[in-house]
Amino acid sequence: xxxxxxxxxxxxxxxxxxxxxxxxxxxxxxxxxxxxxxxxxxxxxxxxxxxxxxxxxxxxxxxxxxxxxxxxxxxxxxxxxxxxxxxxxxxxxxxxxxxxxxxxxxxxxxxxxxxxxxxxxxxxxxxxxxxxxxxxxxxxxxxxxxxxxxxxxxxxxxxxxxxxxxxxxxxxxxxxxxxxxxxxxxxxxxxxxxxxxxxxxxxxxxxxxxxxxxxxxxxxxxxxxxxxxxxxxxxxxxxxxxxxxxxxxxxxxxx
Length: 255
Description:
alpha+beta; Arc Repressor Mutant, subunit A; 2 domains; seven-stranded mixed sheet; 7 helices; 13 strands; 23% strand
Protein backbone atom coordinates (compact mmCIF):
# COMPACT_ATOMS: atom_id res chain seq x y z
CA UNK A 1 0.00 0.00 0.00
CA UNK A 2 1.43 3.33 -1.12
CA UNK A 3 0.53 6.02 1.43
CA UNK A 4 1.31 8.92 -0.92
CA UNK A 5 -1.61 10.42 -2.82
CA UNK A 6 -1.56 12.31 -6.15
CA UNK A 7 -2.07 15.85 -4.89
CA UNK A 8 -1.80 17.29 -8.42
CA UNK A 9 -5.35 16.11 -9.07
CA UNK A 10 -6.58 18.85 -6.73
CA UNK A 11 -5.36 21.64 -9.03
CA UNK A 12 -8.47 21.50 -11.21
CA UNK A 13 -10.82 22.24 -8.29
CA UNK A 14 -11.45 25.26 -6.09
CA UNK A 15 -13.62 23.73 -3.39
CA UNK A 16 -11.69 22.14 -0.53
CA UNK A 17 -14.26 19.35 -0.28
CA UNK A 18 -13.98 18.57 -4.00
CA UNK A 19 -10.19 18.62 -3.88
CA UNK A 20 -10.17 16.20 -0.97
CA UNK A 21 -12.75 13.89 -2.53
CA UNK A 22 -10.99 13.62 -5.90
CA UNK A 23 -7.52 13.03 -4.44
CA UNK A 24 -8.53 10.55 -1.74
CA UNK A 25 -10.96 8.55 -3.88
CA UNK A 26 -8.37 8.28 -6.64
CA UNK A 27 -5.89 6.99 -4.07
CA UNK A 28 -8.48 4.47 -2.91
CA UNK A 29 -8.93 3.12 -6.43
CA UNK A 30 -5.21 2.39 -6.63
CA UNK A 31 -4.59 1.17 -3.07
CA UNK A 32 -7.69 -0.12 -1.30
CA UNK A 33 -8.25 -3.87 -1.39
CA UNK A 34 -11.12 -6.13 -0.39
CA UNK A 35 -10.85 -7.48 3.17
CA UNK A 36 -13.52 -10.09 2.44
CA UNK A 37 -11.79 -11.88 -0.45
CA UNK A 38 -8.44 -11.98 -2.21
CA UNK A 39 -9.15 -9.12 -4.63
CA UNK A 40 -6.20 -6.67 -4.52
CA UNK A 41 -8.29 -3.79 -5.92
CA UNK A 42 -11.70 -2.18 -5.57
CA UNK A 43 -13.65 -0.70 -8.47
CA UNK A 44 -14.28 3.04 -8.10
CA UNK A 45 -17.98 3.75 -8.65
CA UNK A 46 -19.29 6.81 -10.45
CA UNK A 47 -19.73 9.94 -8.29
CA UNK A 48 -23.22 10.13 -6.88
CA UNK A 49 -23.63 6.40 -6.32
CA UNK A 50 -25.87 6.12 -3.24
CA UNK A 51 -23.85 5.57 -0.05
CA UNK A 52 -20.91 3.79 -1.69
CA UNK A 53 -17.64 4.74 -3.42
CA UNK A 54 -16.23 1.33 -4.36
CA UNK A 55 -17.28 -2.21 -5.19
CA UNK A 56 -15.22 -5.37 -4.99
CA UNK A 57 -15.00 -6.93 -8.48
CA UNK A 58 -14.80 -10.36 -6.83
CA UNK A 59 -17.29 -10.70 -3.96
CA UNK A 60 -19.20 -7.48 -4.82
CA UNK A 61 -19.01 -6.07 -1.28
CA UNK A 62 -19.57 -2.29 -1.22
CA UNK A 63 -17.29 0.24 0.49
CA UNK A 64 -17.29 3.93 1.29
CA UNK A 65 -14.23 6.07 2.04
CA UNK A 66 -14.63 8.91 4.56
CA UNK A 67 -11.56 11.14 4.67
CA UNK A 68 -10.57 14.03 6.92
CA UNK A 69 -7.51 16.02 7.91
CA UNK A 70 -8.25 15.88 11.64
CA UNK A 71 -7.45 12.79 13.76
CA UNK A 72 -9.97 9.96 13.82
CA UNK A 73 -11.66 10.29 17.18
CA UNK A 74 -14.97 9.08 18.61
CA UNK A 75 -17.32 10.92 16.25
CA UNK A 76 -17.17 11.07 12.44
CA UNK A 77 -19.51 13.08 10.24
CA UNK A 78 -21.63 11.24 7.71
CA UNK A 79 -24.51 12.07 5.39
CA UNK A 80 -28.28 12.04 5.79
CA UNK A 81 -29.53 10.34 8.93
CA UNK A 82 -32.58 8.59 7.46
CA UNK A 83 -30.58 7.25 4.51
CA UNK A 84 -27.94 5.66 6.74
CA UNK A 85 -30.44 4.18 9.19
CA UNK A 86 -32.48 2.66 6.35
CA UNK A 87 -29.31 1.23 4.80
CA UNK A 88 -28.42 -0.48 8.09
CA UNK A 89 -31.96 -1.73 8.72
CA UNK A 90 -32.14 -3.22 5.22
CA UNK A 91 -28.60 -4.65 5.47
CA UNK A 92 -27.46 -2.56 2.50
CA UNK A 93 -24.92 -0.29 4.20
CA UNK A 94 -21.36 -0.31 2.80
CA UNK A 95 -18.31 -1.22 4.83
CA UNK A 96 -16.49 1.97 5.83
CA UNK A 97 -12.88 3.01 5.42
CA UNK A 98 -12.15 6.02 7.67
CA UNK A 99 -9.04 7.95 6.64
CA UNK A 100 -6.96 10.71 8.20
CA UNK A 101 -4.55 12.37 5.76
CA UNK A 102 -1.90 15.09 5.91
CA UNK A 103 -2.88 17.96 3.62
CA UNK A 104 0.61 19.45 3.26
CA UNK A 105 2.01 16.19 1.88
CA UNK A 106 -1.18 14.49 0.66
CA UNK A 107 -0.19 11.40 2.59
CA UNK A 108 -2.32 8.84 4.45
CA UNK A 109 -1.65 8.84 8.17
CA UNK A 110 -4.39 6.60 9.60
CA UNK A 111 -6.94 4.28 8.02
CA UNK A 112 -9.61 2.37 9.90
CA UNK A 113 -11.98 -0.26 8.49
CA UNK A 114 -15.43 -1.07 9.94
CA UNK A 115 -17.36 -3.90 8.22
CA UNK A 116 -20.92 -3.05 7.18
CA UNK A 117 -22.37 -5.76 9.44
CA UNK A 118 -20.72 -4.21 12.53
CA UNK A 119 -22.73 -0.97 12.65
CA UNK A 120 -25.49 -1.14 15.29
CA UNK A 121 -28.25 1.47 14.88
CA UNK A 122 -27.07 2.89 18.22
CA UNK A 123 -23.84 4.03 16.51
CA UNK A 124 -25.72 6.38 14.16
CA UNK A 125 -26.26 9.67 15.97
CA UNK A 126 -28.81 12.16 14.62
CA UNK A 127 -27.60 15.75 14.24
CA UNK A 128 -29.73 18.85 14.65
CA UNK A 129 -31.76 19.80 11.55
CA UNK A 130 -30.30 22.47 9.27
CA UNK A 131 -31.69 24.26 6.23
CA UNK A 132 -28.86 24.53 3.68
CA UNK A 133 -28.95 27.30 1.12
CA UNK A 134 -31.26 26.43 -1.74
CA UNK A 135 -33.28 23.89 0.26
CA UNK A 136 -36.85 24.49 1.40
CA UNK A 137 -36.97 21.63 3.89
CA UNK A 138 -34.68 20.97 6.89
CA UNK A 139 -31.87 18.47 6.34
CA UNK A 140 -30.89 16.05 9.12
CA UNK A 141 -27.40 14.61 9.05
CA UNK A 142 -25.73 12.05 11.28
CA UNK A 143 -22.45 11.11 12.91
CA UNK A 144 -20.85 7.71 13.46
CA UNK A 145 -20.08 7.11 17.14
CA UNK A 146 -17.10 4.74 17.00
CA UNK A 147 -17.39 4.05 20.74
CA UNK A 148 -20.58 2.10 20.02
CA UNK A 149 -18.88 -0.23 17.56
CA UNK A 150 -17.23 -3.31 19.15
CA UNK A 151 -13.44 -3.09 19.28
CA UNK A 152 -13.26 -6.39 17.36
CA UNK A 153 -14.79 -4.66 14.33
CA UNK A 154 -12.61 -1.53 14.35
CA UNK A 155 -9.87 -2.90 12.11
CA UNK A 156 -6.64 -0.92 11.80
CA UNK A 157 -5.32 -0.77 8.24
CA UNK A 158 -2.83 2.08 8.75
CA UNK A 159 -1.74 3.47 12.12
CA UNK A 160 0.50 6.52 12.26
CA UNK A 161 1.81 5.80 8.74
CA UNK A 162 2.51 2.13 9.59
CA UNK A 163 0.67 -0.28 7.28
CA UNK A 164 -0.93 -3.43 8.70
CA UNK A 165 -0.27 -6.45 6.43
CA UNK A 166 -3.30 -7.30 4.30
CA UNK A 167 -3.28 -10.88 5.64
CA UNK A 168 -3.79 -9.57 9.19
CA UNK A 169 -6.60 -7.24 8.11
CA UNK A 170 -8.37 -10.08 6.31
CA UNK A 171 -7.95 -12.40 9.28
CA UNK A 172 -9.53 -9.88 11.65
CA UNK A 173 -12.34 -9.32 9.15
CA UNK A 174 -12.86 -13.09 8.96
CA UNK A 175 -13.10 -13.39 12.76
CA UNK A 176 -16.00 -10.92 12.98
CA UNK A 177 -17.75 -11.99 9.76
CA UNK A 178 -20.08 -14.43 11.61
CA UNK A 179 -21.92 -11.28 12.73
CA UNK A 180 -23.14 -10.99 9.13
CA UNK A 181 -25.15 -14.20 9.50
CA UNK A 182 -27.12 -12.90 12.49
CA UNK A 183 -30.56 -11.67 11.35
CA UNK A 184 -30.54 -7.90 10.86
CA UNK A 185 -33.49 -7.49 13.26
CA UNK A 186 -31.38 -8.99 16.04
CA UNK A 187 -27.88 -7.86 15.09
CA UNK A 188 -28.11 -4.44 16.76
CA UNK A 189 -28.67 -6.12 20.12
CA UNK A 190 -25.80 -8.54 19.50
CA UNK A 191 -23.39 -5.73 18.63
CA UNK A 192 -24.42 -3.63 21.63
CA UNK A 193 -23.89 -6.56 24.02
CA UNK A 194 -20.54 -7.46 22.40
CA UNK A 195 -19.42 -3.85 22.72
CA UNK A 196 -20.47 -3.80 26.37
CA UNK A 197 -18.62 -6.95 27.40
CA UNK A 198 -15.52 -5.83 25.49
CA UNK A 199 -15.54 -2.70 27.65
CA UNK A 200 -15.35 -4.83 30.80
CA UNK A 201 -11.66 -5.22 30.05
CA UNK A 202 -11.72 -8.88 31.14
CA UNK A 203 -10.81 -12.01 29.24
CA UNK A 204 -13.18 -14.02 31.45
CA UNK A 205 -16.38 -12.64 32.94
CA UNK A 206 -19.70 -13.71 34.41
CA UNK A 207 -23.28 -13.14 33.33
CA UNK A 208 -23.60 -10.94 36.42
CA UNK A 209 -20.77 -8.77 35.05
CA UNK A 210 -22.75 -8.31 31.83
CA UNK A 211 -25.81 -7.27 33.83
CA UNK A 212 -23.88 -4.14 34.84
CA UNK A 213 -24.86 -2.74 31.41
CA UNK A 214 -28.59 -3.32 31.92
CA UNK A 215 -29.50 0.34 32.33
CA UNK A 216 -27.36 1.41 29.37
CA UNK A 217 -28.96 -1.24 27.15
CA UNK A 218 -32.43 -0.22 28.35
CA UNK A 219 -31.76 3.27 27.00
CA UNK A 220 -30.51 1.93 23.67
CA UNK A 221 -33.49 -0.44 23.35
CA UNK A 222 -36.40 1.24 25.12
CA UNK A 223 -38.99 -1.09 23.57
CA UNK A 224 -37.59 -4.12 25.37
CA UNK A 225 -38.70 -4.61 28.98
CA UNK A 226 -36.79 -7.85 29.60
CA UNK A 227 -33.23 -6.63 29.17
CA UNK A 228 -31.54 -9.20 31.42
CA UNK A 229 -33.20 -12.01 29.50
CA UNK A 230 -32.04 -10.39 26.29
CA UNK A 231 -28.46 -10.10 27.57
CA UNK A 232 -28.39 -13.83 28.37
CA UNK A 233 -29.81 -14.59 24.94
CA UNK A 234 -27.19 -12.47 23.19
CA UNK A 235 -24.35 -14.11 25.10
CA UNK A 236 -25.54 -17.40 23.61
CA UNK A 237 -25.77 -15.83 20.14
CA UNK A 238 -22.17 -14.63 20.49
CA UNK A 239 -21.14 -18.11 21.62
CA UNK A 240 -22.78 -19.67 18.56
CA UNK A 241 -20.99 -17.13 16.33
CA UNK A 242 -17.62 -18.13 17.79
CA UNK A 243 -17.07 -14.70 19.34
CA UNK A 244 -17.50 -15.97 22.91
CA UNK A 245 -16.69 -19.20 24.76
CA UNK A 246 -18.98 -20.70 27.42
CA UNK A 247 -16.71 -21.90 30.24
CA UNK A 248 -19.35 -23.08 32.71
CA UNK A 249 -22.72 -21.99 34.00
CA UNK A 250 -22.71 -18.19 34.17
CA UNK A 251 -19.05 -17.89 33.11
CA UNK A 252 -17.82 -16.74 29.70
CA UNK A 253 -14.47 -16.15 28.02
CA UNK A 254 -13.43 -14.03 25.06
CA UNK A 255 -11.45 -16.11 22.52
